[in-house]
Amino acid sequence: MATSPSARLHHQPSSCRRLPALTPAPTNLQFLSARCRWRRLPGAAAPPLRLRATGAAPPFDGNGWLPIAAEGEKREDRQQQQQRLKIAVVGFGNYGQFLARTLVAQGHTVLAHSRSDYSAAAAALGARFFPDPHDLCECHPDVVLLATSILSAEAVVRSLPLHRLRRDTLFADVLSVKEFPKNLLLGALPEEFDIICTHPMFGPESAGDGWAGLPFVFDKVRVGDCPARRARADAFLDVFAREGCRMVEMPCAEHDAHAAGTQFLTHTVGRTLALLELGPTPISTRGYDTLLRLVDNTCSDSFDLYNGLFMYNKNSTELLNRLEWAMDAVKKRLFDGLHDVLRKQLFDFEGSPTDPTELLLVGGDLDSDDEEDDDGDAVDGDESASEVNN
């Protein structure tokens, strides 16, 4: 008897045989698999076959939850959906490298530029360093991230060959003040460029254990209405959201009003305490140790950062004046209290005369009319003077 066509598809032609009577008939999935193998080109590897049951319920564990493998697949799908960006970090110093580590870890392409040669540091982080800003801009990054110092930001922005960038490039900054870079970027960049002003309220010292829960302030100053440009802006902000940052959308002016207290005041107190040359003692309290940590944290930053917090935040001058007034008020209260104690010791002793004019005579009697005693005092005074002259 001739072999059935389905059996020929399922078995290799060289080993075709009649199936035993007790062997169950091949299923449709087996037929499909055999047909795929039969039509495969010679020498081509068979693709892995994934069987899916239409309408079948997903497998659950005993607690009614999806197994770990299924959850892992969902996370992989979300990661694949994440938009990969080409980000140019302009200013690749300590803070720029700190941000680049996370950018590279998330799968973004990082291009770096700085006045100093950080090519070795960039290579170690998995980034590409460009000494020439023209070469950097010709790579057409999706995002240009300004991570320079506040004092050099304007010079760096105006030195970039903006004409070599795409017309819809997104510019962002991570400076510690916000109104200044906002006005700078609005004035220096073409109108087609998008602008997001941001401030990660942390650094390498404070974020040593990760960014989770730390505040990240941002202001979408100018983002085009095109869906692609909105998606790119969201993808950039998602860099920080994925790390667990507490995302705070806030206007630049409001940020600077708060930052005068949260940053400038903190740095001022820390640097003032540093001038006292404080150190640990055998009886240090927790509060004192906190002050020492404040000194270490603030003085580890450059003075240019502190100077920039003062010069480029109009709220800092007022706060510095208020701080000086508060210190004078505390001193006045202390010295007034000290004077009150001294006055009580000098004037409020028991049995003191009620008339303040009597305090001018110690041990004297204003009611005495003894002229002889007055003459005696005068003679004694003359004798004393004579003894001195002799």
From TrEMBL:
InterPro entries: 6-PGluconate_DH-like_C_sf, NAD(P)-bd_dom_sf, PDH_N, Prephen_DH, TYRAAT1/2, TYRAAT2_C
Keywords on record: Oxidoreductase
Region described as Disordered: spans on this chain: 1-21, 352-390
Segments traversing the membrane: none
Molecular function, one GO term: arogenate dehydrogenase (NADP+) activity
Ranges annotated as biased composition (Acidic residues): 366-390
Pfam families (alphabetical): PDH_N, TYRAAT1_C
Cited Gene3D superfamilies: NAD(P)-binding Rossmann-like Domain
Domain Prephenate/arogenate dehydrogenase: start-end pairs: 85-364
GO BP, sorted A to Z: tyrosine biosynthetic process
PANTHER family linked: AROGENATE DEHYDROGENASE-RELATED, OS06G0709000 PROTEIN
Protein name according to UniProt: Arogenate dehydrogenase 2, chloroplastic
Native organism: Dichanthelium oligosanthes
